């Protein structure tokens, strides 16, 4: 593997363009436009020799270091030292020269004073630099493994190094760029007083609600997040139990209903709730006429946001919990019943404790999602202020106060990290492994009658409510003017997705086609990359022990804890100038989606992998397989529910994301959500809803394709649930237990 990546590095240095191409990252038009001698397309070796950019020549020197090992290989006495020096030195030099020299020469005045004026400039790094950086990273990780890191396992060291590098570049770096603004005063100087002024503002931490006034935005956000996390976790568990532990006839339909809210832009759910429960909503008017009372505005504020967020985020809990509930070993439940425990005691004392990783992760993800949610508070917030909208208005509103936005982002980060710490404390160091290498062919124990009634009474009404909400959405796509003229028409779909014919073939006449194809392409590229990074990270966190593991886990969750508005602005600040010029490209959208959605794959993978006994890994390694083969052939097949969850979630969130995307789209890469927002702002609600309905159908199709392609996890268990109708003896036993 070392020599392969070394060859990749030389290809990047000698053959490929060093700087970013104006045609875009994915095109090859540069091959026919002056390559390789034209300054914009020349590889690094020609840039350094012919075009007077001498600072690029040491890049080749660091790549030449490992060639000293060509004869002796691992037998060389300085094998590890040479690789570590070459890899680490190359990375430091590559990043350092990229930041030191920009479009107009030296990027800092002190560099110009030290070395004199520089007439030569450079743009953002491109193909060649990307391959060279990857080569340096693998060389460094190989050297660390040779020095004894991670017991000499190159796959593990390379995986850890890659994740750390990616998180540092695409999470810590952009967030650090915007958070430094928390200490910048009005005149642009660093000042602790600026931070204190914004942090101690009464509008942030005020407790006026206890005296009949208004609470600070921080307490509003925390209270809403706790309520949403509790409701979504309980609903997700109820749906998971109905699907896995009962004989409910319409399980497939119930699965679809739990997925629907997550594949819908959040502001659309808000608009549907307004049509139902707003002052002029159908339900509100019906109740008002029936009881003879004045229609109220209760939907706007905390109740409305909570209802919309519960609808939106329950699928996250379900996707996390379904694999965990399925993973509980039937043999343990059968052993409990053999010891004369009833179904209620078996569930409370055996099954539920083994579900704790899933419950904790579902709560954490819902809490963070609520904290970072932007669409629902924007549509239904009323006078109830939350951090995400306050950050947005601080950045783009009349305040134009980046310092206040940065301080509010720090407050939000404090809450999310506190939830993360509480989750780790609750789980502790207990083992939750229930899937081992032994055969486990039993059937899950069904729910006792009382719990079954509670689960049915929770999941089924919520499912019916979801059907009503989506009925309003689909109905709205077929009316002329939503809420005013309810005449049925297909004009909305024709305007968005009309198709015509010409002498040259099909003409995509609808106005939405361009953003539609762009959205599908970006989402299809980002989804598998998100799942790969997330599940690999989960494997490292659960199966490997290394220094800095807690900081490593924190880094993987950081992007999820920051509101999308902050992520969007931070990406603009970080990637708008050399050495990383990515704004306006499709690449920055893919990167944003990967690291915004990666934590779901991480948490879902951790929850599922916590149930896999380590003896599986040990058996594979004992039989001669290396860690990569063990991960690919043993672990991944048992993580199919987590893989499906990661792929589904990352794909649909890439399509429905709003807050971060609104800052990163461009004329060439316009996403569906930003296009829909434009339609809403122009009052074209029917076309906007029609577009959303098409996206919902596309995502449902994609979900079914993913589930069919990945398949189910095979644990040699029966898919049936043990008869849920208890005998008279069992009823009596449970009554006395």
Automatic annotation (TrEMBL):
Cited Gene3D superfamilies: MetI-like
Record's subcellular location: Cell membrane
Lipid bilayer topology: Multi-pass membrane protein
GO biological process: transmembrane transport
Database matches in PROSITE patterns: ABC_TM1
Keyword terms of this UniProt record: Membrane, Transmembrane, Transmembrane helix, Transport
Pfam families linked to this entry: BPD_transp_1
SUPFAM superfamilies per record: MetI-like
GO cellular component, one term: plasma membrane
Membrane-crossing residue ranges in chain numbering: 54-70, 82-106, 126-147, 154-176, 222-244, 256-278, 298-325, 346-368, 402-422, 454-478, 522-542, 554-574, 586-606, 642-665, 685-710
Location of the ABC transmembrane type-1 domain: 218-423, 516-706
Family affiliation: Belongs to the binding-protein-dependent transport system permease family.
Protein name: Iron ABC transporter permease
Organism: Thalassospira profundimaris
